[in-house]
Specification:
Helix content: 25-40%
Largest sheet: 5 strands, mixed
Distance between the termini: 61 Å
Number of strands: 22
Strand order of the largest sheet: 2-11-10-3-9
Low-confidence stretches: none
Structural class: alpha+beta
Number of helices: 24
Length: 672
């Protein structure tokens, strides 16, 4: 045997050993290799693949470390639609679900598979002849994003399976709590913005264009559904789960096959208690009819199956101590009080701060420093102080006195329309927040330029207005004197700042932080004027005549561009080479149902509001935030509130998501 054949056999041997070790460690939670042995064998395989590139299998264990940066994600059309799940929020709705299932099927008692609902990102894996060929996100249910490279870095996902027929399995990619905490600790050290929760972190990691970044994030996945289970001879969902587990897929051990509604409710009550102790976040439980032969009989809506539901946990509440009240002054001068809390985990996130809204909020609830407060997440997202636990208040407690002068510039604070403001335009806090806003996703979206770094740059004198970001590259050595900032961080930041010069002028217009000009209004303005210069020359009459702009916003725009200081700033930005023009091609939709129609979207739908709004606007529709007599139709999702009530009172046409989708698809086809 020659040297090449020896290396070839060794590559095959190492591949088998490392794949087996990954399965043992990441699926079975055991391992026949020590960490040192694993690393040594991995290093040997990498060396052999470098020596003989032709021997590297696309699904080699070395792919787990990531490699290569994509320009964008390709689209993958799902073989079968990836359904979402209808939500219920209490035991009465679960009982009603069971009653409907029994009524439709004629069964006295139904067997259900109960599973924890992982708070992650839905994903599909497709195999051909036993090899993984693609991994994709749910997307809109019909078409998802190709995240194969990134899924290859998740060590619990099998590259090869024994099933040789074409095979698809679906599940959830998530970030374990320990990975999430480690990631945020690392980001804090690097002065990067922290992820709000593990789901956001998982989504951002799986959709990162650089698979090496994904590989470092510690993602994992549970697999829980086989779309073609009946074709493979399985009639019970529980049997299909056992099968994929035997194939090497990681299935959740918290699942349970139960008999009848009482056992379902017992499972629900049990996991109310267990939820905080799980090593990953769950936002509910999935209750699924186990007999898959009944699925067609029970039926489907346009987006959801009727044979399963997702029970969503009520907002989790925790009690913690309010240690202090911090006052900040935003970019508009509005004074915002923030509760500084003893850290506590609420609905999957470690919370140490919560907004107190304004002076009246504190006074109405009589919130005092030193109080114990009840904390929850509104919509499982935004931390809120619900109430004060009065029985735990100290006897020597004193009512909180809201400051009368700005803590940053010491100017007197003013009350304007129920809010407290610092009206000093040169207040350092207002300046810092303007800088932060410019760098944020709502502005120029400069990756790596987080709040703490912006504050440091301001305090050290490097940045006084947004134009100064474009001179940072001239201060490399001085910047490296700031604690925690190295040469690599600086050069990466310089590259990010340089890239903003190529962005559409919409981002720049948003970043200027003109009062009342947010992303939506900025798009309207640039779609009409096509350049910042043309917008600056616009008259009040021209501006106020535009839909979604109006008289007040028009005055704000005129005032902003009339200010000599703002004119000088814009000229500086021009000199630094920022793009002042729209990069968006002029698009005129052919006449269709949505042309010129004003619509309002309210409630929860299966895709993001931004995605649905963009589809309708591309067809010539015009979105609005409020319902009026001018509204042509309202798209009402689940838990639609006052906007739906007003639309009904005004006799405005109301669509459900199921009703509007065929109209959208027909209109989009007419554009081809």
């Amino acid at each position: 045997m020659n040297d090449y054949e020896t290396d070839q056999n060794r590559v095959k041997e190492l591949t088998e050993i490392l794949n087996r070790s990954n399965y043992e460690y990441y699926v079975l939670n055991q391992s026949s290799l020590s960490d040192a042995e694993f690393d040594s064998l991995m290093e040997e395989l990498q060396m052999l693949e470098k020596k003989h590139p032709e021997l590297k299998d696309p699904l080699s264990p070395t792919s787990r470390v990531g490699g290569g940066v994509l320009d964008s994600f390709k689209k993958i059309k799902h073989k079968k639609y990836m359904l979402s799940i209808g939500d219920v929020f209490n035991e009465e709705e679960i009982i009603a679900f069971d009653e409907n299932i029994r009524k439709v099927t004629g069964l006295k008692v139904v067997d259900y598979m109960c599973e924890v609902k992982i708070d992650g990102l839905s994903c599909s894996l497709v195999y051909e002849n036993g090899d993984l060929i693609s991994a994709s996100t749910r997307g809109d249910g019909t078409v998802g994003e190709d995240v194969t490279n990134n899924c290859l870095t998740i060590r619990s996902i099998p590259y090869h399976i024994q099933e040789k027929r074409d095979f698809e399995v679906r599940g959830e990619v998530y970030m374990p709590k320990n990975s999430f905490e480690r990631l945020n600790q690392e980001r804090e050290k690097e002065h990067q913005p922290l992820f709000a929760n593990a789901r956001n972190a998982a989504s951002g990691s799986l959709k990162n264009l650089d698979s090496k970044v994904t590989a470092k994030r510690g993602l994992d996945a549970w697999w829980y559904y086989v779309p073609d289970a009946l074709d493979f001879g399985f009639t019970k969902h529980s049997d299909a789960l056992n099968y994929i587990q035997n194939l090497g897929f990681k299935t959740n051990p918290e699942r349970r096959l139960v008999h009848g509604i009482e056992e379902v409710l017992a499972y629900v009550r049990e996991y109310h208690e267990k939820r905080p102790s799980l090593p990953y976040d769950i936002d509910g439980l999935v209750i699924k009819v186990n007999d898959m032969t009944l699925y067609d009989l029970i039926g489907y809506t346009m987006k959801t199956p009727k044979w399963e539901i997702a029970y969503k946990f009520p907002p989790e509440e925790q009690i913690t101590k309010l240690q202090d009240i911090e006052i900040t002054v935003g970019r508009t001068g509005r004074v915002v009080p923030t509760a500084i809390l003893a850290p506590v985990r609420v609905a999957g996130s470690l919370i140490s701060r919560a907004t107190l809204n304004n002076e009246d909020f504190i006074a109405t609830k009589d919130i005092r420093i030193g109080d114990y407060v009840s904390l929850h997440k509104a919509g499982d997202v935004i931390p809120e102080v619900e109430k004060v636990i009065l029985e735990r208040r100290e006897k020597d407690s004193h009512p909180y006195s809201f400051p009368t002068e700005c803590p940053y510039c010491h100017n007197h604070l003013e009350r304007i329309q129920g809010q407290t403001y610092c009206v000093n335009e040169n207040c350092p806090s207002r300046t810092i927040n303007n800088l932060i806003f410019f760098a944020s996703k709502n502005g120029m979206d400069i990756d790596g330029l987080g709040e703490k770094l912006v504050e440091s740059l301001f305090n050290e004198g490097f940045v006084r207005d947004i134009s100064d970001f474009y001179t940072l590259k001239d201060h490399l050595e001085d910047l490296m004197m700031i604690d925690g900032i190295g040469e690599k961080t600086c050069k990466s930041l310089f590259a990010e700042i340089e890239n903003t010069k190529k962005k559409d002028v919409v981002s720049l217009l948003c970043g200027l932080a003109i009062p009342l000009v947010g992303k939506k209004t900025a798009i309207v303005l640039i779609d009409h004027f096509r350049s910042l210069d043309a917008l600056m020359r616009a008259s009040y009459e021209e501006l106020s005549s535009l839909e979604d702009v109006g008289e007040i916003t028009a005055n704000k725009i005129i005032s902003y561009f009339a200010d000599e200081k703002n004119k000088a700033l814009i000229e500086k930005l021009r000199g630094y080479g920022l793009n002042f023009f729209s990069l968006k091609p002029v698009y005129q939709a052919k006449e269709n149902y949505f042309s010129g129609k004003r619509f309002v979207l309210t409630g929860t739908i299966s895709v993001s509001r931004e995605e649905m709004t963009e589809r309708i606007e591309r067809l010539g529709g015009k979105s609005s935030s409020s319902v009026s007599k001018l509204t042509d139709f309202v798209l009402a999702g689940e838990k639609a509130g006052s906007k739906l009530t007003k639309a009904q009172a005004l006799g405005v046409k109301i669509f459900s998501e199921e009703e509007i989708l065929p109209l959208l698809e027909e209109a989009e086809k007419s554009q081809e």
